[in-house]
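Handout, section B. The chain below has 293 residues.
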Amino acid sequence: MASSPVSNSSQSWSQRLEPFLMLVPAGLWLFLLLILPTLLIFQLSLVPGIKPGDLVNPSSLENYFKIFEPSVLLVILRSIGLSILTTLFCLILGFPVAYWIALLAPERWQNLLLLGFVLPLWTSSLLRAYAWISILRPTGVLNTILTTLHLPALDVMNQLPAVLIGMTYSLLPYMVLILYSSLEKLDRRLLEAAADLGAPPKDVFMNVTVPQALPGIAAGVLLVFINAIGDFINPELLGGPSSMTAARLLYSRFLGASPDWGMGSALSALLIMLVTLAIVCLIKYGDKNARSI
């Protein structure tokens, strides 16, 4: 017996709606914890000099103009510079390690080696920062060793180098794990073919290995950069007054002695736009590179 057109129509509509209904819980969670707070931040950024308890009455872009004041602009540029340097050091240090684990280390040891890089992530970032304080302070482990070897002591605590060391240490495992997952999938036949044709190791690395690992490199760079630009603990504990970053400035604008929620919201909106731009670049160029391999 043939089914009626009405039942076929209702069945097709239910099939079309089923994927959207499955997305409702995640969509509601995303709206409440991401979209709605972002809209509130944008609304507050349009209110000059707003403080806790004030009426929200969006009226001008004055808070955005404050971002271009020399003192604030210097903090933003310092944060971007620190994030770029941290990303660069993580890539330089992480790529050889990931390459060795993925391609050169015995297969039975790979999981154990990866576990060694994951273990620091199981501890609190606060404890890791305090560990670096005990190492880098003037009477710490590093200077004790240097003094024992009759070498000059280093004064890096409460300065940008200490912040850079702490951020690189904290974010290096992310870079290693992402690069490992990309390098593990390398087509080793291409490496063997290039070696058989007499290509020098440098050319094999630049023309065969790097292009295949480029999507993983892009993902690792993006993840480290986003975490670095939002890092608060390492600049706060390892850096001094000269190491003010965007995250510390945001804290002072929202929870400091003289709060200015409007200015803080404008700076937050700028950082959100910067991170969104980085994600768009990854989606556009990372996928393109992945398809071309």
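Note. Residues 13 and 272 are 38 Å apart (CA to CA). Compare this with the example in section A.
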